[in-house]
Amino acid sequence: MLEQGAPPGGRRGLPSDRPGVLVRLVLRALVLAFPLALLLAGTAHADEVSDEELNTLSFYRLSSSMTALFSTAQEPGSGVSLDSEGWIGLLEQPASAGSMLGYADEDYNPIAGWLNSRVAQSSDSVGYETLVGSENSGLSGVEGAQDFALFGATLNGLGLDSTSTGLSLGFFNAVFGGIIFLLYTVSAGVDALWSILIEALVWLNPFRLFYDAISNEVFADGMTGGAEPPEVLESLTTWIADWYGFLEDLAWQVMVPVFIGVFLMSILLFKQFDKASGLKKLFIRLLFIGLGMPLLGSMYTGMLNAMAEATEEGNSGSTRVVLSTYVDFEGWAMDHRLRVPDGEGAYVEWEDSRNAPSGRSQASVRSLALQINYQVLGLSEATSPLDGDEPWGGALGGSEAGFQETHYAQVASILGRYMSSAHVSASSFETESKASLSEEVRTCGEVCARNWFEQYIGDPEEVVNVGTENGEVQVADNPLISVSGAGLTASDSDRGRRFSTADEVDSCGLDLATNDGRPRRCNLAPLAMYNYLNTDFGPTSYTAYSSGRTTSEATRSIHNSVSMVGTGTMSAVYWFNAVVLLGAFITIGVGYALAMLVGNIRRSFQLIAAIPFATLGAISGIAKVIVYSIALIMEVLVTIALYKFVQEFLLSLPSIIETPFARILNQSAADEASAMIVFLYSGGFISMIVTLVSIILVILFTVMAMRLRKTLVKLWRRPRPSWSKSSPTATSRPPVVAAWAASCRPWPRGPPPAPGRRWAAG
Does pLDDT of 499 surpass 60? Predict the structure, then answer.
């Protein structure tokens, strides 16, 4: 027990084993000093890293410097002027001027913010009207920067480019994109189904069962195209060969002599015997017994082989519908730098009066989307160029020439990325593009890639004079901010500003420069493409986001990897139109295919059942075999031809509706009717009405097409010869009438016996 007042760390009468007060104070001082020393050391190291970052090869730093330079040059009373030839040339072209429209980070380039209005800690907003240079900056009337921003606004207004935040759940994308993906998968498989069914019909060819029964090997090969009977039906073919051989021997040894004898006896015994009719019947019997099966079999087999080759070409109608509804923005941006497709019908126009894309651009957006996706897939040369009167439906037709397996995988990838709400970021473009630099510019030989960054990163007062001293990179020679040639261009049109890509522009993709360090012929400069991916374009202004200050993707807008064309209600209408078209392809394709297969199999059994009687020389049996063989051929020919016709008509139906409006809008007449249509068209009303009407017509035509095939094929189901009183023939007379003619009795007057009776084939 401790006494009162005893030290807590020791025992009574003994010295304490704990350290003294002085020692404890020293230890506590060291404990406090050590973390403080580490903190100071870390701060000093961080300052050193920040100083080094001033010279790092960063697109973000370069974009900040260029944006600060452009903004400072517009400030009233600023001493920075972009009146040199190099800067004016850069800002005259939208392809290069976009390099000046990014986010100016105040940690690196503090600016007054004359053009940039701070929206949040990590974003700036800039109005389009402020992007035209002033006289003080030496850029009076230069519209390159404004055209670049309006180009982004046009793509956003057309639905070719869209943005979302990291908080977007993507529920609607997953649901509606999943429906299109399911329909596309089934629709694209319809062509494969046709190929499979044709192969099945080749395998189930009824004439192949008689291959072993034909004694002449040449005739047997011609009847089946050289294909032997299926091994699984070997026992059946053996049995058929046995009884067919027996019937054929019976026909040649018994029936043929009987037919010849009856014919000769009739000539000798009956003076009024119809020799021509009797000779015709005898010739038909002999020809069928000798060559009937090989001839009919070769016709049917040759038709199947031809149809098999025709179905291999397929039809990419379903693929074209998807590619005209969804745009692979990631592939378009990363591989082609948003290159506008060639052709007079590629309308990318901005209408200043409405702060929106022109009505002509909105009406042709699906055709434009199809051409953009064809560029991404590498099929731009496989399509016909658009012209002024070419609406969407006219661009959908054609076979799948040029399509490969990888292209269908890319289409599936487009839908998959849309369903998952995938994004494309500026950082991915930067990191991947830096890997494309050649060894010459990496090792700083005659051209050094480091100078492209270091000489253009800094305060506006320093950067504005770059290129004036020896060894400095000229503005036009910096491949990060400039392009060779024109690239993206803007011109005045009757509906506003129209954007296009100059001729001989490369795809460029992720390549920053040529192997010798020169600017490439691109649609957009690398830094302009980087700034575009960091920007959200609206109707009257754009918002540039910071890559360094953004805490997460939830606080900024990011470009979607895949966008659906159209905006608002039109986007939903286009989606529904795609669903209806794909559903029509599936309904008609599967319905026709199954009906053809069932009808072909049924007639094959009827054909096999009629062959024994035809082999013995029965005229009715021969007629049935011939008619059933023709029915087999017509079943396949009519169905496939009708399917292709219906599919092409469905694709052309929107074109039929849109063409009159397109021609009216493209003419220069200024009468009241044209003016009213132009007004309705510019607001998108006519486009919506035309699309809705085409949807209704597609549904109605699908129902009609299903009935049309049934009506056409019904004509070949069975032989139905009609009896005519005025012109009776040997093949169309009822049995009683034929008996009267054979007995040489005069033709009776009046109707035949049993009036109202429906005579069947003999």
Answer: yes
Q: What is the mean pLDDT of the chain?
A: 74
Spatial CA neighbour of 592 closest among 634, 636, 560, 559: 636
Give the burial class of 332: count Cβ atoms within 10 A of its Cβ; 0-12 exposed, 13-18 middle, 19 or more buried: buried
Question: 34 burial class (0-12, 13-18, 19+ CB within 10 angstroms)?
Answer: exposed
Report whether 302 contacts 225 (CB < 8 A): yes
Cα-Cα-Cα-Cα dihedral sign, residues 467, 473, 475, 481: negative
For residue 546, give Cα distances in angstroms to 55, 329, 571.
19, 21, 30
Copy the structure tokens of residue 324. Answer: 């005209």
Residue 40: band (very low, low, confident or very high) from pLDDT cuts 50, 70, 90: very low
Q: Where are the alpha helices (DSSP H) in 204-274?
A: 217-224, 234-250, 256-269
- Residue corresponding to tokens 């094959």: 604
Round to whole Å and give the CA distance between 372 and 328: 8
- Stretch 626-654: mean pLDDT: 76
Cα(302)–Cα(202) distance, rounded to whole angstroms? 10
Q: What is the rounded distance in angstroms from the CA atom of residue 406 to the CA atom of residue 208?
A: 37
Segments of 591-642 assigned E as strands? none
Q: Average of pLDDT values for 319-338?
A: 92
More confident call, 569 vs 53: 569
734 Cβ partners below 8 Å, 6+ apart?
Answer: 723, 752, 757, 759
d(CA 536, CA 556): 9
pLDDT at 404 over 90: no
Using the 8-state DSSP alphabet, how is residue 543 labeled? E
Rounded to a whole number, what is the largest CA-CA distance in the chain?
Answer: 164
Whole-angstrom Cα distance, residue 619 to residue 339?
70
pLDDT at 396 over 50: yes
Give the integer Cα–Cα distance in Å for 131 and 146.
5
What's at 167, amino acid-wise? L
Q: What's the pLDDT band for 100 if we cut at 50, 70, 90?
A: very high
Quote the CA–CA distance of 370 and 396 in Å, as a whole number.
Answer: 8
CA of 199: how far to CAs of 149, 308, 401, in Å?
55, 7, 21
Q: In 3-state terms, what secondary structure has residue 340? A: coil
Contact at 8 Å (CB) between 325 and 574? yes
Give the number of other Cβ atoms within 10 Å of residue 677's Cβ.
Answer: 18
Which has more confidence, 464 or 680? Answer: 464
**10 Å Cβ neighbour count for 412?**
15
**Could you tell me the sign of the dihedral formed by the alpha carbons of 257, 262, 268, 271, in that order?**
negative
CA dist., res. 302 & res. 288, Å (int): 19
Find the length of the chain: 762
* pLDDT recorded at residue 172: 87
Q: Residue for token digits 């046995």? A: 242
> Is the pLDDT reported for residue 730 higher than 60?
no
Dist. CA 562–CA 417, nearest whole Å: 7
Residues 6 or more apart whose Cβ sits within 8 Å of residue 23: none
d(Cα 460, Cα 506) in Å, to the nearest integer?
Answer: 32
Q: Tell me which amino acid residue 518 is.
A: R
Question: What dihedral angle (degrees, nearest 10) is formed by the CA atoms of 128, 134, 137, 140?
Answer: 100
Range 100-112 burial, b when 16+ CB lie within 10 A, else e: bbbbbbeebbebe
The pLDDT confidence band at residue 3, using thresholds 50, 70 and 90, is very low
pLDDT over 60 (residue 576): yes
Cβ within 8 Å of residue 89, ≥6 positions away: 96, 475, 476
Paired strand residues for 542 = 126, 537
Mean pLDDT of all residues in 248-271? 74
Q: Determine which of 329-338, 664-673, 687-696, 733-742 has the lowest per-residue pLDDT on average.
A: 733-742
Are 459 and 109 contacting, i.e. CB atoms less than 8 angstroms apart? Answer: yes
pLDDT above 70: residue 324: yes
Mean pLDDT of 271-293: 73
